[in-house]
Protein backbone atom coordinates (compact mmCIF):
# COMPACT_ATOMS: atom_id res chain seq x y z
CA UNK A 1 0.00 0.00 0.00
CA UNK A 2 2.92 2.38 0.71
CA UNK A 3 4.20 2.01 -2.87
CA UNK A 4 0.75 2.88 -4.21
CA UNK A 5 0.49 5.98 -2.00
CA UNK A 6 3.99 7.16 -2.93
CA UNK A 7 3.26 6.66 -6.64
CA UNK A 8 -0.06 8.51 -6.41
CA UNK A 9 1.53 11.46 -4.58
CA UNK A 10 4.41 11.67 -7.08
CA UNK A 11 1.99 11.49 -10.03
CA UNK A 12 -0.22 14.12 -8.45
CA UNK A 13 2.81 16.39 -7.93
CA UNK A 14 3.84 15.93 -11.57
CA UNK A 15 0.33 16.83 -12.71
CA UNK A 16 -0.18 19.80 -10.40
CA UNK A 17 3.26 21.37 -10.18
CA UNK A 18 5.69 20.12 -12.83
CA UNK A 19 3.89 21.02 -16.07
CA UNK A 20 5.11 17.67 -17.35
CA UNK A 21 4.11 16.30 -20.74
CA UNK A 22 5.34 12.77 -19.94
CA UNK A 23 5.62 10.74 -16.76
CA UNK A 24 7.27 7.33 -16.55
CA UNK A 25 6.54 4.89 -13.71
CA UNK A 26 8.82 1.90 -13.09
CA UNK A 27 8.24 -0.80 -10.53
CA UNK A 28 10.68 -3.63 -9.92
CA UNK A 29 11.01 -6.34 -7.28
CA UNK A 30 14.53 -7.39 -6.32
CA UNK A 31 14.62 -9.99 -3.55
CA UNK A 32 12.94 -8.44 -0.53
CA UNK A 33 12.96 -4.93 -2.02
CA UNK A 34 10.40 -3.14 -4.12
CA UNK A 35 11.95 -0.36 -6.21
CA UNK A 36 9.67 2.41 -7.45
CA UNK A 37 10.69 5.25 -9.77
CA UNK A 38 8.54 8.07 -11.09
CA UNK A 39 10.25 10.35 -13.62
CA UNK A 40 8.70 13.39 -15.29
CA UNK A 41 9.90 15.77 -17.98
CA UNK A 42 8.50 18.84 -16.26
CA UNK A 43 10.02 22.07 -15.05
CA UNK A 44 11.90 20.50 -12.14
CA UNK A 45 11.87 21.61 -8.54
CA UNK A 46 13.22 24.97 -7.50
CA UNK A 47 16.10 24.46 -5.05
CA UNK A 48 15.00 27.46 -2.96
CA UNK A 49 11.55 26.00 -2.35
CA UNK A 50 11.09 23.86 0.78
CA UNK A 51 9.53 20.40 0.60
CA UNK A 52 5.78 20.32 0.98
CA UNK A 53 3.57 17.93 2.91
CA UNK A 54 3.49 15.47 0.00
CA UNK A 55 7.28 15.10 -0.14
CA UNK A 56 7.46 14.61 3.62
CA UNK A 57 4.67 12.05 3.46
CA UNK A 58 6.39 10.02 0.72
CA UNK A 59 9.68 10.04 2.64
CA UNK A 60 7.98 8.96 5.88
CA UNK A 61 6.16 6.09 4.17
CA UNK A 62 9.39 4.73 2.72
CA UNK A 63 11.39 5.14 5.92
CA UNK A 64 8.67 3.55 8.09
CA UNK A 65 9.20 0.36 6.08
CA UNK A 66 12.98 0.52 6.47
CA UNK A 67 13.37 1.83 2.96
CA UNK A 68 14.89 4.86 1.29
CA UNK A 69 13.48 7.85 -0.55
CA UNK A 70 15.43 10.12 -2.91
CA UNK A 71 14.32 13.00 -5.11
CA UNK A 72 16.59 14.23 -7.89
CA UNK A 73 15.54 17.33 -9.78
CA UNK A 74 17.11 19.87 -12.09
CA UNK A 75 15.25 23.08 -12.89
CA UNK A 76 14.00 22.82 -16.46
CA UNK A 77 14.89 19.11 -16.76
CA UNK A 78 12.30 17.22 -14.74
CA UNK A 79 12.21 15.25 -11.52
CA UNK A 80 12.96 11.68 -10.49
CA UNK A 81 11.30 10.30 -7.36
CA UNK A 82 12.84 6.99 -6.25
CA UNK A 83 11.66 4.87 -3.33
CA UNK A 84 13.00 1.52 -2.21
CA UNK A 85 10.73 -0.37 0.17
CA UNK A 86 11.44 -3.55 2.09
CA UNK A 87 8.68 -6.09 1.48
CA UNK A 88 9.58 -8.48 4.27
CA UNK A 89 9.64 -11.46 1.92
CA UNK A 90 12.42 -13.08 -0.04
CA UNK A 91 12.02 -13.97 -3.69
CA UNK A 92 11.80 -17.72 -4.25
CA UNK A 93 11.96 -20.00 -7.27
CA UNK A 94 8.83 -21.91 -6.34
CA UNK A 95 6.99 -23.51 -3.44
CA UNK A 96 8.99 -24.76 -0.49
CA UNK A 97 9.06 -28.56 -0.80
CA UNK A 98 9.02 -28.84 2.99
CA UNK A 99 5.64 -27.12 3.26
CA UNK A 100 3.96 -28.50 0.15
CA UNK A 101 1.19 -30.93 0.99
Automatic annotation (TrEMBL):
PANTHER family: NITRATE/NITRITE SENSOR PROTEIN NARX-RELATED (PTHR24421). It comes from Micromonospora craniellae. Keywords: Kinase, Transferase, Two-component regulatory system. This is Histidine kinase/HSP90-like ATPase domain-containing protein. GO terms for molecular function: kinase activity. One of its GO terms (biological process) is phosphorelay signal transduction system. Gene3D superfamilies: Histidine kinase-like ATPase, C-terminal domain. Residues 3-85 form the Histidine kinase/HSP90-like ATPase domain. The lineage of its organism: Bacteria, Bacillati, Actinomycetota, Actinomycetes, Micromonosporales.
